[in-house]
Amino acid sequence: MGNLVNFRDLGGIPTTDDRIVQEKRILRAGQLVNLSDEEKEKLISEFDLVNIVDFRGVKEVTSAPDDEFDSVSYTHLDVLAETEKNSANFDDMQNILTVERVDELMMQLYTQLLEDSVSQKGYQEFLELLVAQKEGATLFHCFAGKDRTGIGAMLFLKLLGVSDELVIADYLKTNESRREANEALIVRAREEEISEEHAQALLRALSVDVRYLKHVMTLISDQYESFENYAAQKLNFGQRQVDLLKELYLKKQ
Question: Which family does it belong to (predicted)?
């Protein structure tokens, strides 16, 4: 998709009860900035895009606003609104100097996305928006489409009944989908004569690691026993809404 990095349709992923996610209903990506006319047209005509959900922070949105689309709704949900330094935007990523520190901060970030009340409110509004969207596709994203977007995808897919293995498989697609974009960012960083250790840390920060997602999956399992319980207790998204989500986004194989 050219300038639209880390883009994919979550449609076609099977659930444990032999249904599949509907195609052209739920899309994920990195930021929608400087897209070509062809990319915009494809999102509208081929994927029936009707709504965009932007998980980025105010600073990110102000400095690089999403491209405008005719007749497409836009919703900004800053899931890290109360964190001044969150390691999820590119400016903060560039300031992390070692791979070990990246891993430490990512574990903290993913925990916060799960446990912080502002993050919970953002993901609650995201899920409520999805059950209100009866037709067409919603595209949700952050800067790189990997962490804030990754948690959103995990919650959506797990509530539909997708296995851990397939949720993780979708999550790890980011490393291949962002490969070219990440390499370009590393080249630019090296032009500023950063150390090789710093370059490797930046590359790590721009990638995903299975340990990050498994960490929050384990937290939910240990503390809430199920994603449904977590959604009901922390996102005010109960079984009736989960059932509606399944009705709207699943189909028989």
Answer: Belongs to the protein-tyrosine phosphatase family.
Domain boundaries, the chain: 8-252
Of 95-99, 128-132, 172-176, 240-244, which gets the smallest average pLDDT? 95-99
DSSP 14: B
Q: In degrees, to the nearest 5, what angle opens at C-alpha 145 toward C-alphas 142 and 151?
A: 85
pTM above 0.90, yes or no: yes
CA–CA gap between residue 130 and residue 156 (Å, rounded): 9
**Size of the chain in residues:** 253
The answer to whether the CB of 153 falls within 8 A of the CB of 167 is: yes
Say how far apart CA 141 and CA 178 lie, in whole Å.
14
- 170: tokens are 């979708």
Superfamily of domain 8-252: Protein tyrosine phosphatase superfamily (3.90.190.10)
DSSP 185-242: HHHHHHTTT--HHHHHHHHHHTS--HHHHHHHHHHHHHHHSSHHHHHHHHS---HHHH
> Looking up tokens 């630019």, which residue turns up?
188
- Could you give the percent of the chain with pLDDT greater than 70? 94
